[in-house]
């Protein structure tokens, strides 16, 4: 159980946090004026980027599983959007899933892979 928690606990916590946040009715959500859409869409990208990274960590950072991590994050995004359709004042948005959530997950995974490769290449030889 400890090994599972170490590998997948972050994913589980992020999924619970996303579910809790998307369970809030629209009249309970903060409003950010003219930058409202920017902040909320950036939140989508950040949240699903972190979730994709947590999934990839669960897979042991195996590069062959990076696409699986992305797919799981996008699949969870789709189920979360469906969940929002049942929350007062909220609606499901395919655009959120296919653009913001998918892009956030892909960008986070790419940045993590790029950083790992870049750091490995810049280490001095023994």
What are its keywords?
globular, mainly alpha, 0% strand, 126 residues, single chain, 73% helix, 4 helices
Explain how this protein is built:
The mean pLDDT is 94. It is globular, with a radius of gyration of 16 Å. It is built from four helices and no strands. The protein has helices at 2-22, 36-58, 66-84, 94-122. The chain has 126 residues and is an all-alpha fold. Helix 1 (2-22) packs antiparallel against helix 2, helix 1 (2-22) runs parallel beside helix 3 (66-84) and helix 3 packs antiparallel against helix 4 (94-122).
Give the low-confidence spans. Answer: none
Put simply, the count of helices is 4
Biggest sheet layout: none
Query: How far apart, in Å, are the first and last alpha carbons?
Result: 38 Å
Mean pLDDT: 94
**CA-atom Rg in angstroms:** 16 Å
Extended strand count: 0
What is the helical fraction, as a range of percent?
over 70%
Shape: globular
Pattern of helices and strands: HHHH
Strand % is under 5%
Helix- and strand-based class? mainly alpha
How is this structure best summarized?
With 126 residues, the chain is mainly α. 73% of the residues lie in helices and 0% in strands.
Topology:
Elements: H1 2-22, H2 36-58, H3 66-84, H4 94-122
């Amino acid at each position: 159980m400890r090994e599972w928690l170490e590998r997948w606990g972050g994913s589980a916590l992020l999924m619970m946090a996303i579910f809790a946040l998307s369970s809030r009715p629209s009249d309970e959500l903060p409003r950010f004026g003219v930058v409202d859409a920017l902040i909320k869409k950036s939140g989508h990208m950040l949240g699903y980027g972190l979730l994709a990274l947590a999934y990839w960590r669960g897979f042991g950072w195996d590069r062959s599983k990076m696409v699986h991590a992305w797919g799981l994050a996008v699949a969870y995004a789709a189920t979360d959007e469906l969940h929002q359709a049942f929350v007062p004042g909220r609606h499901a948005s395919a655009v959120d899933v296919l653009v913001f959530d998918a892009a956030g997950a892909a960008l986070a995974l790419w940045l993590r892979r790029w950083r790992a490769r870049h750091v490995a290449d810049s280490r001095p030889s023994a």
